Amino acid sequence: MFNALFVTLRECAELLLIAQAAAEYLRNAARADLARGLPGAMGLGVLAGAALSAAAAAYPWDPRLSAGISALFAAAILFLTTSMLSSAQIIRSRTQLAADAWTARPSATIWVGVFGVIVGLRESVELAFFLHETHDEAGPADTATGFGLGLLATGLLAAAYRPLRTRVGMLSVFRLSALLMALLSIQLILKGCAELVLASVAHDSTLPDRLAPFMEGGAWYGWLCAALMLYPVVAMARTWWSETSTR
Fold first, then answer.
1. Ramachandran region of residue 202, left (φ > 0), alpha (ψ -120 to 50) or beta?
2. Phi-psi region of 192 (alpha: psi -120 to 50; beta: other; left: phi over 0)
3. Nearest-CA neighbor of 80 among 30, 156, 14?
4. According to its UniProt record, which protein family does this protein belong to (predicted)?
5. Are 190 and 215 in contact (CB under 8 A)?
């Protein structure tokens, strides 16, 4: 239930933060007309992501293909999360340069709409992926409860965002949540790899037994997760150090 609650809150909060930041930038650039269409575009992306995820969940995938896709998707989320931690300033500068170029074009309405759809699609697909994995482990009741509590927590966070922003380093909180998201991604990568091995090797193979200590529940599983978490932790520490040293 906690995993479902956390990923729901994290993905919904990220979507709201992106929407708020993009709308604020557009208003400051005297393009409030574009900002008004952003929520609708993001909502369309969320609906498209939900439909795509539902179709993917209902499709009868081959077990090996399903395990491989799950591992690759989790790896992609881990890469995006780690990139946000290690090069936040570069991402911000590139995003602003791209936004400057888009809003200056006659087709700015289309570009902003495409941006909103892509953001909504990405966040909803990521959320559906994590909820699907949680459903397989915790069952439908715990997943639904965690999802509902996550939506409730998102509503409370949105209501308290303005007073919280002046008292709490929201970027620091968001980065800490990114670390937990990285850990969940690492666990899903290991799970996908384990399922791929089990589905690919012969029944009499000893490979699953040799890998068992490094898989979930094994003696070395926690140490393996900790070792793989070193890079995201170091990336966040380096970013924090560089930002504090320039103040």
1. beta
2. alpha
3. 14
4. Belongs to the oxidase-dependent Fe transporter (OFeT) (TC 9.A.10.1) family.
5. yes
145-166: average pLDDT: 77
Cβ-based neighbour number of residue 243 at 10 Å:
12
Query: Quick check: helix, strand or coil at residue 155?
Result: helix
72: pLDDT confidence band, cut at 50, 70 and 90?
Answer: very high
Other C-beta atoms closer than 10 Å to the C-beta of 186 total 20
Distance CA 164, CA 166 (A): 5
Tokens of 170: 């929201």
User: What type of residue sits at position 70?
Assistant: S
Encoded tokens for 72: 């690759």
pTM here is: 0.78
Helix axis angle for 170-200 and 221-228, nearest 10°, is: 130
Can you tell me the distance from the alpha carbon of 181 to that of 6, in angstroms, rounded to the nearest whole number? 9
Reported as half-sphere exposure (CB side, CA atoms, 13 A), residue 191 has a value of: 17
> Lowest-confidence range among 41-45, 79-83, 219-223?
79-83
SS3 sequence, 29-66? CCCHHHHHHHHHHHHHHHHHHHHHHHHHHHCCCCHHHH
